[in-house]
TrEMBL record:
Family in the record: Belongs to the potassium channel family. G (TC 1.A.1.2) subfamily. Kv6.3/KCNG3 sub-subfamily.
Organism, scientific name: Setophaga kirtlandii (Kirtland's warbler)
Protein name: Voltage-gated potassium channel regulatory subunit KCNG3
GO biological process, one term: protein homooligomerization
Cellular location(s): Cell membrane; Cytoplasm
Location, primary (coarse class): membrane
Subunit structure, as described in the record: Heterotetramer with KCNB1. Does not form homomultimers.
CDD domains: BTB_POZ_KCNG3 (cd18422)
Domain of life: Eukaryota
UniProt GO molecular function: delayed rectifier potassium channel activity; potassium channel regulator activity
Length: 428
């Protein structure tokens, strides 16, 4: 510290005094306090604190003393929690003043802060122009970048503006219409007979494009294709855009249509493609991936995807539990029901792979009843299998549930943040 005298300094926060040595201030965890170490003049000191007493080398901060006491507990012990009976947003303001962030809070307090900020549609961010002095100063090309950013938010964030909400509504309508057409195409009156030849199936597919359902399908595909192309053009990182799961799903939903059209055009009556009709039906059925496009507009589906992404270890652990139990119970059930040859053979358990089906439906408590043990030892084993399935499935689900709640609060807070900007747009 280059200003003041004495081996120690005193911080007076709201009437509560804290004494520190000069060397401690150099690497102090609170950024505002550590800035005192580099002050060269009294003017520099007054930019950091509210007042200064040269004789006692005491620095005054007109802040909440109890909140600073809890912040000091974080400095000493590494745990930061809210002050009881204090507004979460007020404590968060104190944290920002001293140089802390929301990530420094314990997990339970982070959830409380996210809930409160989501309810009040409040968020804290730096000024984009660097304060009042930055207004009016725009670097070359700023208008173009601003337009691209606005376009990107319009297509990526459905609640960021009125135009984004209109675009999201239109996209949802196209998804619903395409799903209705897909479901209606499987009705007996609409479906092509299964005994059509390859040539007839090809002609039927080509004619279906000119039918009303084919026209609606082509319009929907055209909309999805145009939307995907525009989003690719305005994206910041093209490689990252291609790697995103939702964009991959968009490609899986759009590509089969063009493949089926090309196959119909180029194969024709080619006898070498005996299963062309089956391939086309499979490609057309891949339109079901359009349903996942709704994840762009609904927090619930986004929460599900984010939870699966973050909890893949727990999901793998759950599958390992099920596979281990399946191997044990299927082998034992096959032995008790069919392998001991006690005069009562159950043909449903003729092999271990056949018994695996019974184990999986018993552990998940579905119990279709299509196969069941008939011997007393087999029934006892079945009861143990059901109980163990409940226990094994419940263990990792607890972790998945907590991650689901956390992901939901994160996405809800982000949606509330953009809703706030949408409200400002309406006011303007």
């Amino acid at each position: 510290m280059n200003f003041g005298r004495g081996p120690s300094v005193v911080l007076n926060v709201g009437g509560t005094r804290y004494s520190f040595s000069r060397e401690v201030l150099k690497d102090f965890p609170l950024r505002r306090v550590s800035r005192l170490h580099g002050c060269l003049s009294e003017q520099d000191v007054l930019e950091v604190c509210d007042d200064y007493d040269r004789e006692r080398n005491e620095y005054f901060f007109d802040r909440h003393s109890e909140a600073f006491g809890f912040i000091m507990l974080y400095v000493r012990h590494g745990h930061l929690r809210f002050v009881p009976h204090m507004c979460e947003l007020s404590f968060y303001n104190e944290m920002i003043y001293w140089g802390l962030e929301g990530s420094h809070l314990d997990y339970c307090c982070q959830r409380r802060l996210d809930d409160r900020m989501s309810e009040t549609c409040t968020y804290y961010a730096a000024e984009p122009n660097g304060g009042p002095e930055g207004k009016g100063r725009r670097p070359p090309g700023a208008e173009g970048r601003k337009w691209l950013e606005r376009m990107r938010r319009t297509f990526e964030e459905p609640t960021s503006s009125v135009a984004a909400q209109v675009l999201a509504t239109v996209s949802i309508l196209f998804v619903i219409v395409s799903m209705v057409v897909l479901c209606a195409s499987t009705l007996p009156e609409w479906r092509a007979p299964e005994n059509r030849s390859v040539e007839e199936q090809s002609r039927y597919t080509a004619e279906s494009v000119r039918e009303p359902s084919g026209i609606i399908e082509a319009i929907c595909i055209g909309w999805f294709t145009a939307e995907c192309i525009v989003r690719f053009i305005v994206s910041k990182n093209k490689c990252e855009f291609v790697r995103r799961p939702l964009n991959i799903i968009d490609l899986l939903a759009i590509t089969p249509y063009y493949i089926s059209v090309l196959m119909t055009v180029f194969t024709g009556e080619n006898s070498q493609l005996q299963r062309a009709g089956v391939t086309l039906r499979v490609l057309r059925m891949m339109r079901i991936f359009w349903v996942i496009k709704l994840a762009r507009h609904f927090i619930g589906l986004q929460t599900l995807g984010l939870t699966l992404k973050r909890c893949y270890r727990e999901m793998v652990m759950l599958l390992v539990f099920i596979c281990v139990a399946m191997a044990i119970f299927s082998a034992l059930s096959q032995l008790l029901e069919n392998g001991l040859d006690l005069g009562t053979k159950n043909k449903d358990y003729a092999s271990i792979p056949a018994a695996c089906w019974w184990v999986i439906i018993s552990m998940t408590t579905v119990g279709y009843g299509d196969m069941c043990p008939i011997t007393v030892p087999g029934r006892i084993l079945g009861g143990i299998c059901v109980v163990s399935g409940i226990v094994l499935l419940a263990l990792p689900i607890t972790f998945i549930y907590h991650s689901f709640v956390q992901c939901y609060h994160e996405l809800k807070f982000r949606s509330a943040r953009y809703s706030r900007s949408l409200s400002a747009e309406f006011l303007n």
